[in-house]
């Protein structure tokens, strides 16, 4: 089977991430795609010519799909993912429903892509990480391999698209005088839910369960593109020049002088720059700045890369025509 012939469903197809997912599938030549969304979007004709189907447990359990990409929110995923699996599909889920659950791989392909295959014979569900955890771990993994991570601190500057298409429309309708920073996540004690997610997910992805990591997350009046200031302390010395060399060789990482959300928008790389010593650290401290398109590598692209890892074993399976030839 050619992977481009795989029968793929996209749940949440009319949302901010779903729209990008459909574009990436189309650009990569996937020919058999079915978009799903809520009842109010069902029947809608998309620019690609596809017609949106209603995402119901019955529709997803009916079969006919090899893999389903979910970007529809945690509560919806909890209702809709199990029927998709029962219908025979593999699942990549963008919500937080399965990210920290035992037995469900949480995967960034450049970091721990080998974990994805574990789901094929078990849960058949791979979790797609938080949009800030993905670029962060793309940068932290090569640094850990080079010098070991001692502790990490970061502050995020997250675009409104991370909160959905409706927040993008709200920002567009505001006057510049109305723009402000926000802390629009649920609070868990003195941390936001997002801050706790980044710590827990980075630890799971990197397989460093005790890594000291502290985050401050901020929503900024930017449409697309998350940025992060990152302070890293390593076990072994690593100069800024060595750090740049390590990161320049890392997959999906691109060195630039000054990473910005606009510069990262509609690109597939994690932009990294402003690499310098941390002058407040006692030793082995570095400061970095990164930016990433939260809808592309921070969401849709990462999901598609996971999907391709899951579909790869099927490409190696003999198909019916091949079996017939073998039999002769």
What report would you give on this structure?
The protein is of the alpha/beta class. It folds into two domains: 156 residues, NAD(P)-binding Rossmann-like Domain (Rossmann fold, 3-Layer(aba) Sandwich); 161 residues, 2-Layer Sandwich (Dihydrodipicolinate Reductase, domain 2). It is built from eleven helices and 14 strands. It has a six-stranded parallel beta sheet, with helices on both faces. Helix 1 links the parallel strand 1 and strand 2. The longest helix is centred in the C-terminal third of the chain and has 21 residues. The chain is globular.
Protein traits:
single chain, 328 residues, alpha/beta, Rossmann fold, Dihydrodipicolinate Reductase, domain 2, 2 domains, 6-stranded parallel beta sheet, 6-stranded mixed beta sheet, 11 helices, 22% strand, disordered C terminus
Present the secondary structure layout.
Blueprint: E1 8-11, H1 16-27, E2 33-37, E3 53-54, H2 57-61, E4 67-70, H3 74-86, E5 90-93, H4 109-112, E6 125-127, H5 133-147, E7 149-158, H6 165-173, E8 187-188, E9 191-192, H7 193-206, E10 213-219, E11 226-234, H8 240-248, E12 253-255, H9 261-264, E13 270-277, E14 285-292, H10 296-316, H11 320-327
Parallel strand pairs: 1-2, 1-4, 2-3, 4-5, 5-6, 7-10, 12-13
Antiparallel strand pairs: 7-11, 8-9, 11-14, 13-14
């Amino acid at each position: 089977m050619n992977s481009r012939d795989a029968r793929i469903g996209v749940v949440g197809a009319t949302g901010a991430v779903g729209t990008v997912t459909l574009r990436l599938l189309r650009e990569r030549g996937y020919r058999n795609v079915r978009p799903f969304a809520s009842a109010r979007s069902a029947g809608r004709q998309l620019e690609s010519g596809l017609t949106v189907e209603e995402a119901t447990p019955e529709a997803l359990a009916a079969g006919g799909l090899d893999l389903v990409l979910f970007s529809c929110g945690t509560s919806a995923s909890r209702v809709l993912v199990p029927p998709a699996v029962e219908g025979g599909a593999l699942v990549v889920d963008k919500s937080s429903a399965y990210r920290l659950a035992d037995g469900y791989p949480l995967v960034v392909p450049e970091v721990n892509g080998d974990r994805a295959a574990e789901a094929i014979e078990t849960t058949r569900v791979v979790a797609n990480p938080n949009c800030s955890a993905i670029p962060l771990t793309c940068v932290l993994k090569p640094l850990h391999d080079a010098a070991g991570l001692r502790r990490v601190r970061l502050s995020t500057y997250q675009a409104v698209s991370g909160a959905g298409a409706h927040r993008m429309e709200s920002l567009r309708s505001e006057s510049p005088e109305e723009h402000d920073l926000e802390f629009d996540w649920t609070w868990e004690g003195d941390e936001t839910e997002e801050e706790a997610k980044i710590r827990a997910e980075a630890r799971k992805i990197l397989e460093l369960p005790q890594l000291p990591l502290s985050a401050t997350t901020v929503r900024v009046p930017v449409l697309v593109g998350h940025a992060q200031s990152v302070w890293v302390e390593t076990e072994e010395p690593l100069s800024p020049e060595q750090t740049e060399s390590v990161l320049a060789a890392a997959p999906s990482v691109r060195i630039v002088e000054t990473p910005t959300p606009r510069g990262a928008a509609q690109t597939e790389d994690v932009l990294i720059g402003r690499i310098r010593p941390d002058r407040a650290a006692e030793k082995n401290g570095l400061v970095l700045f990164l930016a990433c398109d939260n809808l592309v590598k921070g969401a849709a692209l990462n999901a598609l890369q996971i999907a391709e890892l899951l579909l790869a074993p099927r490409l190696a399976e003999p198909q019916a025509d091949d079996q017939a030839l073998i039999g002769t």
